Amino acid sequence: MVEKGDVVSVLGPNGAGKTTLIKNICRIQNPDSGFIFIDDTNIHNYKKREFAKRVSYVPQQIVPSFMTVFDSILIGRRPHINWAVTKEDEDMVWDVIRLFSMEKLTLTYLNQLSGGELQKVQIARAVVQNTDVIILDEPTNNLDVANQHAMLAMIRSIVKKNNACAVMIMHDINMALYYSDKFVFMKDGQVVNCGDKNIVTPDLVKEIYGIESKIMYNSGMPIVVAKKSDFNNEEKLNEIGWIKKK
Predict the structure, then answer these.
(1) Domains along the chain?
(2) Does the entry feature the keyword Chaperone, yes or no (predicted)?
(3) Which residue from 25, 120, 185, 214 has the least number of CB within 10 angstroms?
(4) 8 A C-beta contact, residue 192 and residue 18
């Protein structure tokens, strides 16, 4: 169960079913079985507009369009707009633009942005949508390490401040451990384990990724470290987010 204030990371190897899971949550796909509830209401009982006020979604990939950064972020306000865009809507967009330090990009077209800048626009759009639930498919995609930390810290801060919750697919298990409260580990389309940091053990890492590891601690924070026997296994290390695909 995901509660208000939670940041939840969904982890697992490629093809584990992570993206399918969050697409079911976002009503992009329908589950083969089972039900998903928000505040005791089946998500399929919400009308489309009401659901868009409850859940926002940041996909892994987006095709840049001939639209400015400001207008693209403003689209996030669409579920809340009645007859026309209000000053409140515009003010909220400007607040988020300043929060993401994108003031100089407001009139830049999306097809002129770098991958990292485009990712920031997508997340800013979800934030301005002002939902209870934010779903993110690899939010650190296309960001360098410094911006990955900055983005995840910002997401966590927004969730805590707004008493919302975030569910995000992550590949880097240590980045997830640092910024998340709960974890869902998947393999072969099944949830293998879920819970807080205490569920992350060498046995679980071995079961999910096939990597021999040990858990170390830095200021009370767990860190997964691969054992020397797997140092040169790029395929396995890539699954856990430690080697980027070329």
Answers:
(1) 7-239 (3.40.50.300)
(2) no
(3) 214
(4) no
Cα gap 183→110, rounded to integer Å: 33
Neighbouring CB atoms inside 10 A of 69's CB total 27
DSSP of 8-70, one letter per residue?
Answer: EEEE-STTSSHHHHHHHHTTSS--SS---EETTEEGGGS-HHHHHHHEEEE-S-----S-BHH
At 71, list the tokens.
């207008």
Main-chain phi, psi angles of 48, to 5 degrees:
-55, -45
Q: How far apart are CA 145 and CA 152, in angstroms?
A: 11
Q: How far is CA 111 from CA 57, 75, 115, 116, 234, in A?
A: 21, 17, 10, 12, 33
Task: For residue 223, give the 3-state DSSP assignment.
Answer: strand
How much is the CA Rg of the chain, to the nearest whole Å?
Answer: 19
Please name the residues in contact with 177: beta carbons below 8 A apart, sequence gap of 6 or more: 183, 197, 200, 221, 222, 223, 224
Is residue 246 pLDDT above 50, yes or no? no
Q: Which of 102, 166, 99 is nearest to 136 (CA)?
A: 166
Both structure tokens of 114: 């770098």
* CB contact at 8 A, 26 and 135: yes
Give 66's pLDDT tier (boundaries 50, 70, 90).
confident
